[in-house]
Amino acid sequence: MTAELAKPSNGRRRALIAIAGLGVLVYLAAAVITDADRLEAALLALGWGGTALVLGASALNYLLRFGRWSMYIRELGHDVPRGRHLLYYLCGFAFTVSPGKAGEAVRSLYLREHGVSYPDSIAALFVERVLDLMAIALIACLIVLKDPSYWPVLVGALGTTLALVVFIGRPQVARGFDRLGARRSGRIAAALTGIANLLRSSKALLTPRLLLSGLVLGVVAWGAEGVGFYWILQGLAIESSIPEATGIYGVSVLAGGAAFFMPGGIGGMEVVMPALLVAQGVPLATAVIAMLLCRLATLWFAVVLGLIAATVLETRAVPAPVSGSV
To answer: Which of 8, 25, 107, 287 fits a disulfide with 274 by CB distance 3.0 to 4.6 angstroms?
Structure first.
């Protein structure tokens, strides 16, 4: 890609990052002002050591998921310098608060400069989402050890994920979009062809080997945040086991995922997590504190890391080598 072609992309990218940063600051400021006393009490209860453990668990989640992401990009035939690639991946977290986390696709704008086509990078994001849903549903199953009534919800989440995997894996689906695109013209034809290419790239990432390794990495990554939630409960003197805490965290994340059009699933987890804790006999005020700490250590920690990565990329940008077609 020439410098002339890169400039418009850079301008749009920086505008997106600036808007995301402003939105996050406004939302976070409102949250802090609204719940300042409870946030202060929560942080004091957890302490410096507990805070470090919980943030470390979240950092492990991000690193494991980056390892899976970079594996997908390599499998699609692209080699991106690891340090820059990590920054690209973290940068996507600045847009985690977008509806359905769709804003994380900003990574595609950076990866395009390395020859990674949009269908390939979007396919990696799509497959990552599918496997995350499956992994979270699996760790959410741990709550069944405490309350078997959750089985229908978890079976539904796992069934939906498996149906998506089967749908993606059928070559007839991609060929069907190709045929539809051939009968259309203009933007509609381009969109249908793009969907077909996305499905083909996604199918390439769902071979048995990649499906199993991606799922295992996802379970360990999200399980780490579940253990982090257990440490939060311990810091607040809430009695719980690691499987129970991890199961509650998994169900809460699924609830956030169900609030698809809400930024970062905001609203779903805020309602479900305290409700689950209250059902276990935890006072409501303490349950809300636990939820706030969990949100700070997962969602907002990721957003802050994403904004830092975006700032580094945009203020210390260097020409990126192109290694393939776009």
So the answer is: 287
131-168 pLDDT, tens digit per residue, is: 998 899 889 888 877 777 777 767 777 777 778 777 77
C-alpha Rg value of the chain to the nearest Å: 21
- Mean predicted lDDT score pLDDT of the chain: 81
Residue 94 within a domain: yes
Q: Which residues of 231-240 are buried (b: 16+ CB within 10 A; e: fewer)?
A: bbbbbbebeb
Give domain status of residue 257, yes or no: yes
**What SS3 state is found at 98?**
coil
**φ, ψ for residue 185 (rounded to 5)?**
-145, 165
Measured distance CA(41)–CA(27) in Å, rounded:
20
**Domain count within the chain:** 1
Contacts of 108 (CB under 8 A, 6+ apart): 116, 118, 121, 122, 125
Question: Rounded to an integer, what distance in angstroms lies between the CA atom of residue 208 and that of residue 269?
Answer: 32
Q: What are 99's strand-pairing partners? A: 263
Lowest mean pLDDT among 110-114, 147-151, 307-311: 147-151
- Do the domain assignments include residue 59? yes
Distance CA 200, CA 208 (A): 15
Report, as an integer, the average pLDDT of 277-306.
88
55, 131, 221 from 60: Cα distances, Å: 9, 17, 7
Q: Where are the alpha helices (DSSP H) in 183-207?
A: 186-204
Of 252, 41, 42, which is closest to residue 150 (Cα–Cα)? 252
Q: Indicate the pTM of the whole model.
A: 0.82
Whether 322 is covered by a domain: the verdict is no
pLDDT in tens, 217-264: 999 999 999 999 999 999 888 999 999 999 999 999 888 766 544 555
Distances (CA, A) of 278 to 36, 132, 248, 274, 281: 22, 27, 11, 6, 5
Element (H, E) at 33: helix 3-34
The whole-angstrom separation of Cα 267 and Cα 273 is: 10
Q: Length of the chain in residues, anyone?
A: 326
Q: What is the spatial distance between Cα 179 and Cα 84, in angstroms, rounded to a whole number?
A: 38
